[in-house]
Amino acid sequence: MTTVSAHGARPARDTRQRRAVEAALGRADGFRSAQDIHADLRAAGQRVGLTTVYRALQALADTGSVDTLRADDGENLYRRCGSVSHHHHLVCRGCGLTVEVESTAVERWAEGIAARHGFTEIRHSVEVSGSCTGCARAGSGIR
Amino acid sequence: MTTVSAHGARPARDTRQRRAVEAALGRADGFRSAQDIHADLRAAGQRVGLTTVYRALQALADTGSVDTLRADDGENLYRRCGSVSHHHHLVCRGCGLTVEVESTAVERWAEGIAARHGFTEIRHSVEVSGSCTGCARAGSGIR
DNA sequence: CTGCATGCAAAATGTTTGCACTCTA
DNA sequence: TAGAGTGCAAACATTTTGCATGCAG
After folding, report:
1. Is A114 in the B-facing interface, judged by CB distances under 8 Å?
2. What is the CATH number of the domain that holds A118?
């Protein structure tokens, strides 16, 4: 990490495509990949380049206004998230339903073991996935 | 995922390249990517195809004899791990030094919140990274 | 008017697959 | 000897980059 100023990046210019990406992100409930967003926009008649979607999403992530998550297959997923504070996700592998969960317990645990091993500049990622009630009932057509 | 029998896959045939990959994995301390292993072998004079390395690593992962981890940039990392039981990793972003940590606390937390939200078939991934004492001192030439 | 933003095409990455050949069991 | 394992090349999928053009500020 070379002098990265997390969160607060510069404002970013206000363009049609930028707004479109944000809107699409707002419309979605769960996490969406750049490609998903691109398809959504295209389906909605909005013409925005894939490259731009990637750049917009990246910019939003830098700002801290969207949450990032890496799917099991390596795809990057984004989601406009409600709480600004640090939190983790509980995602349904069946339908993508996402619940934001908070846990000072885990945070502390991470800090703790890291410190115990002499590590500094801690960063952690915690993802919990499963099958939500609906999908479990549907017979786990789980990914 | 279609009918995957986690862990105990079939024995796998004993070949030179298979052994080479396992050996390379054993030589390394931290996590290594398929490409890394391939380079290591090649450097050691061992001639093994990249494809084979990928396949061998995948096979080992299926067996459960190696740990898998996804790097920040999406690369898949592997490591021959000591404990067979479930555990997480504390990785140094500077040098790759890895410490295996166990935590029934986190396990329980994950199960708990998942259950609270009606989720079943829970799966979770927890990764903690930071800068180890050595690297911190060296002035965080952190990735 | 300045220069960040856009978008196309091309490049880069990491990983997988088709297929003929090799070698283990 | 049967069939798993190997390896090369080509296919793939996602993301990034070069560069000419467009538009916000």
Report:
1. yes
2. 3.30.1490.190
